[in-house]
Amino acid sequence: MDEQVIYGRNAVTEALRAGSAIDTVYVQRGAGGLGKLIAMAKEAGAVVKDCSADKLDELSGGGKHGGVAAIAAAAEYAALEDILAVSEARGTPPFIIIADEIQDPHNLGAIIRTAEAAGADGVIIPKRRSAGLTATVFKTSAGAASWVKVARVSNLAETIRLLKTKGIWVYGAEADGEPFYEADLTGGAALVIGSEGSGLGRLVRESCDKILSIDMYGKINSLNASVSAGILMYEIVRARRGKL
Q: Are residues 179 and 233 in the same domain?
């Protein structure tokens, strides 16, 4: 499944007016007359990125782009309230996955796939410095992005603080945390998985209630982000089975 690219000022404007799900809008640096289009994109929840003309030429395949192109989202984004409503409807403690700046679409797709399989209520991602619900993510998720709710928020640290006010414990995954099997994961839980290169952001880490680690016994000292997410998600499932 290739990414669906919409290019040209009129085409992108009409897609936004029609309410099409747009993940990202690329705008050429210095291009004029795009203020209204940019405002529409932001109102629609799309990420707006400045870029070079070369980037737009690449996206449009050399077509006439007029300084703007958009990547269509492969699935609709949910609101945070939609995710919180899942556990309420199920009558179970909340179980939420937070992906902190996971930029590799294959990793994000794999995390969404495992989250759906593990019965998570939803996945939260940031608007900036993160892969979105592109076709690559959708394909890697094996279609799970159609079933598990994915919300995109402006500020992860603020979102975490909001979750904590609702009685949800927030667990970050880092190498220097306490062993995951020593934590009580039976209540409402949000699991935060950090980016592939730098792990959890400072403010996100400081917002977590507890940092969990996975023991490493070989010569490699880290795991792929989606693999770590899978191990910890199913530890939460295991811990909660006798409590639900």
A: yes
